[in-house]
């Protein structure tokens, strides 16, 4: 029962969980994968399917229960889900034996192709900056339009002032 409680504690607060089939990987390859994932603060653990099913019972993670079949390792990210998807996708390029079964990213079941496409996305900060730029563009155009109209008005006003000044200026005396 302690193992189930430990698993529940590890899973609590996770933003992304990806289940993998690690058949065909050597010990050194698993170690390299764990080290790579640790760089991004991602836990990677081989689990017994029955224990994991008990640990997720009654939680939002229960959506994963049908995928705990065969050799299963769990990658758990508490931070950016994109980092987890990128790390596993990169590793799959060198180790095709590593098979992604399914992911649960911020509460949604995610298929292996969706995880690969997630890996190609820029980090969250860049996405937010792009969104902010998109939201600011109409306001910038509006301000530019208002400033342009104001500038044109000032040019017309200055021309009128100059015109009025010419009319009021005394005429030069005739030359003798």
Query: What is the CATH architecture term of the largest domain?
Result: 2-Layer Sandwich
> Which stretches of 5+ consecutive residues score pLDDT under 50?
none
- The CATH superfamily label of the largest domain reads Ribosomal protein L10, N-terminal RNA-binding domain
Instruction: Count all strands and give the number.
Output: 5
The percentage of residues in β strands lies in 15-25%
Write up this protein:
The chain is 56% helix and 16% strand. Strands 2-3-1-4-5 form a five-stranded antiparallel β-sheet. With 176 residues, the chain is an alpha+beta fold. The chain is rod-shaped. The model has no long low-confidence stretch (mean pLDDT 85).
């Amino acid at each position: 029962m302690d193992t189930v409680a430990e698993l529940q504690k590890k899973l609590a607060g996770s933003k992304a969980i990806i289940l993998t089939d690690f058949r065909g990987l050597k010990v050194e390859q698993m170690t390299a994968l764990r080290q790579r994932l640790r760089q991004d603060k991602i836990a990677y653990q081989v689990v017994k399917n029955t224990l994991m099913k008990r640990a997720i019972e009654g939680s939002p993670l229960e959506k994963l229960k049908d995928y705990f079949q065969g050799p299963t390792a769990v990658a758990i990210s508490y931070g950016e889900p994109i980092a987890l998807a990128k790390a596993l996708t990169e590793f799959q390029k060198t180790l095709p034996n590593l098979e992604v079964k399914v992911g649960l990213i911020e509460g949604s079941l995610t298929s292996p192709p969706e995880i690969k496409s997630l890996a190609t996305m820029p980090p969250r900060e860049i996405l937010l900056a792009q969104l902010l730029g998109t939201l600011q563009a109409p306001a910038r155009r509006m301000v530019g339009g208002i400033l342009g109209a104001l500038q044109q008005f000032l040019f017309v006003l200055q021309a009128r002032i100059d015109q009025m000044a010419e009319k009021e200026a005394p005429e030069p005396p005739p030359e003798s």
